[in-house]
Request: fold
Amino acid sequence: MRFLVLLCLALSACTVVETAPRSAPTQPQSINRSAQQAVDAYLKVGARIESVAERVCRQKNPSRPRTYCDFQLKVDPTKTNTPNAYQTIGSDGRPIIAFNIPMLATVQNDDEIAFILGHEAAHQINNHIVRATTNANIGALLLGGLLAASGADQTSIQEAQNIGGTLGARAYSQSHELEADVTGTYIAALAGYDPAIGARSFARFGGGGGLLSTHPPSQQRIAVVQRTVQKIAQDRAAGRNIAVP
Reply:
């Protein structure tokens, strides 16, 4: 436990997230779509989001290879009942955003599809996979090194490295999610969708919170989106250019 505390201090990330005041957003009406209609809606919305996301990505990552911002949208065919959407990297180095069928069946409108797509694209735009990998490596080295210095055997050191890698990868995951929520809000709004409606999906999917959770509480995320939407509205009303932070 002492080693875990030291690792947390070294990474400066093990903090309890304060939950924003609770609210009860009104849920939009569900759209009764077939699986094919859901996929068609995903691809239609995705075409608009992809264009904006790639432009934002290249603006924020001018020195990256062109493939870094060349998003691919896919439907994950994995058999599962759990709704899921994620961003990963393909073998060709291009970022992939994937929704599985349960997720497509769960989303209630195009605004939710747009917001979730923007959020997943934001992980690539903000270099979260690269940063999480670096944090995992640091965590493994720190905890493994501490245990090695104490004279532990190789098995214990390996276990410590595994734990350290997991903690390191999670260390900033909540802040990454909030950062992706902000960027995703801008992307959805710039593509012509309403991210405030899109973020209502948090109330259904639930949230995290706590020391080792990878996601912040849903109400905190909704509050972040609402503040970002207000900032975008103020900039538009003042005639300012909408610049993604």
Remarks:
- Residues 1-30, 134-145, 160-172, 209-213 have pLDDT under 50 and may be disordered.
- Residues 35-130+171-237 form one domain.
- The CA atoms of residues 182 and 225 lie 6 Å apart.
- The longest strand covers residues 95-100.
